[in-house]
Specification:
Helices cover about 45% and strands about 15% of the residues. The chain is of the alpha/beta class and about 260 residues long. The chain has an 8-stranded parallel beta barrel with strand order 1-2-6-7-8-9-10-11, surrounded by 7 helices. Strands 4-5 form a two-stranded antiparallel sheet. The chain is globular. The N and C termini lie far apart (about 65 Å).
């Protein structure tokens, strides 16, 4: 009887592993370059970095939805762009205090856990583009990176999550802890050759950086680095980047970029 139970348990565990692997492999990112900046919020007048803007990016079929992560005084990982929320310093305030004031659409200030769980719902096309914001100290930044990686792993969202940051040390920490993670630098101060040497996976620079450094886009493509640009809201700039074969274009106007792609 005990042998039968052990055999049955082994079969169940094996099948569970197969389901998990199949679920990850069945996720097929949308075949477009559209990354919604802080979610798709502008057209529908939604709050930036809200659950609603994430859902809208998924509904539109964007290949990625970007969002910003910070950590509160009590080590809660939350979604917010600015270092302050409702005039409170996020790193010096508890989540309970911050969450007393809802977003403009009535949503509670979202945690990273909530954001990822929603991002996995009814989503087979859209990457979760996780920007880890620089912290008050380099060590705290690395701690945040560790906590983000652990939470993403615990929620089984590693296959759909990519990491971007202005803090180069945060990206290097991510690569140290999880070498197969997808990372992109935002600051515009590193050449493609330096990015490649440091084993970062790509560059995601403001579109003006590529104009100042006209060889960088081609060099990134040549070295098979991820090539992304932010925050591109002008039709002429979008056309220019598409002509240069940018893999991703991060925008507050995903609907406009989709229209251009259809043409």
């Amino acid at each position: 009887m005990k042998k039968s139970i052990l055999l049955l348990s082994s079969i169940i565990a094996l099948n569970a592993c197969k389901v998990s692997k199949n679920s990850a492999s069945s996720f097929k990112f949308a075949n477009n370059p559209v990354v919604a900046h802080r979610g798709a919020w502008k057209t529908q007048n939604l709050p930036e970095n809200s659950i609603a803007s994430l859902k809208e990016a998924i509904r539109l079929g964007c290949t990625g939805s970007e969002f910003d992560v910070r950590m509160t005084l009590d080590d809660s990982l939350i979604i917010n762009h600015d270092p302050h929320y409702n005039q409170l310093d996020i790193e010096k305030t508890t989540y309970a205090e911050l969450a007393k004031v809802p977003l403009s659409n009535g949503e509670k200030l979202p945690t990273l856990r909530e954001y990822i769980l929603v991002g996995k719902e009814n989503n087979k096309t859209t990457r979760l583009v996780c920007e880890i914001k620089p912290s008050a100290s380099k060590e705290r930044g690395k701690l945040i990176a560790d906590k983000v990686l652990k939470l993403v792993k615990d929620l089984n969202a590693e296959a759909i999550t990519v990491y971007i940051s202005f803090d180069y040390d945060i990206l290097k920490r991510i690569e140290e802890v999880k070498p197969d993670a997808s990372t992109q630098h935002l600051n515009g101060d590193k050449s493609p050759e330096q990015i490649l040497a440091d084993k970062i996976d790509g560059i995601d620079y403001h579109f003006s950086v590529y104009k100042k450094n006209p060889t960088w886009a081609e060099a990134a493509l040549k070295n098979k680095l991820i090539l992304n640009a932010w925050t591109v809201n002008d039709e002429a700039e979008m056309k220019n980047l598409l002509a240069q074969k940018f893999e991703f274009i991060t925008t507050n106007e995903p609907e406009l970029l989709f229209k251009l792609l259809k043409k």
